[in-house]
Structure formats: structure tokens, C-alpha cells
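Lecture notes, part 5. Sequence design as translation. It can be helpful to think of inverse folding as translation between two languages: the language of shapes and the language of residues. The source text, in C-alpha cells, appears below.
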């Protein structure tokens, strides 16, 4: 009669690896993945709430989108001036000092991306 020694043989390790891969492919997430996703969602929500409460500039930040991963906040959207882009960056850096801010926000004024009018160009 064979007794179990509690050791993990090559077949058991292989089965565990296959099981992990199946879970990943078919949407079964580990507790670590779920915690990471929850953390990112909370970080995004907190960043958006910070921007929406930033007075007197909150209305300029309505078009800014925030996406988070474990290391950074990625900001996209539009604001009407470089000053507001800077305010956005500085405020989030203060609130989240250990998170990198990837500020991809475009500066767009009413005349378009450039603030130079066609009539103002040198001839």
C-alpha cells in the first residue's frame, strides 16, 4: 500500500500550471488580480472626484478622462490652456505623491490646437 508523502511531483506542478492558465483564459481571476482591479478602480474614482472638486477650475476638467494601472494615472482629454494642464498635473501629484502622472491632456482653445491666428502669422 502506497502512502502519500505530501510532496509535489512533476505531474502535480504541471496540473497546477495548466489549471492557472485555464482560469486566466476563461476569466477566472485570482484574488490578486481582483485586488489589483479594485485598487485601480478606486484610484481612478478618487482622481476624478479630486478633479471635479478642484475649485475654481472643476468645470474645465469635465472632459479629462482618468485611467489607472498599478503605477500611474493616465490622463487624456482637453483643457483650454497650458496653465490648466499644469494645475491638473500638480493637483493630482499632491493628492497621489507615490503615483506617476502620465498627462496626455491636449491644450485646445476656441481657435483650435494652436493659439496663433492665420492673420497673425509673419509674412
Amino acid at each position: 500500500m502506497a502512502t502519500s508523502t505530501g510532496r509535489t511531483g512533476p505531474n502535480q506542478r504541471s496540473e497546477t500550471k495548466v489549471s492557472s492558465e485555464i482560469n486566466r483564459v476563461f476569466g477566472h481571476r485570482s484574488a490578486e488580480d481582483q485586488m489589483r482591479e479594485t485598487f485601480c478602480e478606486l484610484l481612478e474614482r478618487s482622481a476624478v472626484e479630486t478633479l471635479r472638486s478642484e475649485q475654481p477650475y472643476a468645470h474645465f476638467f469635465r472632459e479629462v478622462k482618468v485611467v489607472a494601472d498599478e503605477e500611474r494615472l493616465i490622463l487624456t482629454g482637453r483643457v483650454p490652456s497650458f496653465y490648466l494642464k499644469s494645475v491638473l498635473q500638480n493637483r493630482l501629484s499632491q493628492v497621489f505623491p507615490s503615483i506617476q502622472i502620465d498627462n496626455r491632456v491636449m491644450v485646445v482653445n476656441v481657435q483650435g490646437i494652436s493659439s496663433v491666428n492665420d492673420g497673425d502669422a509673419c509674412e
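The translated text above is only one of many valid answers, since several sequences can fold into similar shapes. The chain has a mean pLDDT of 79.
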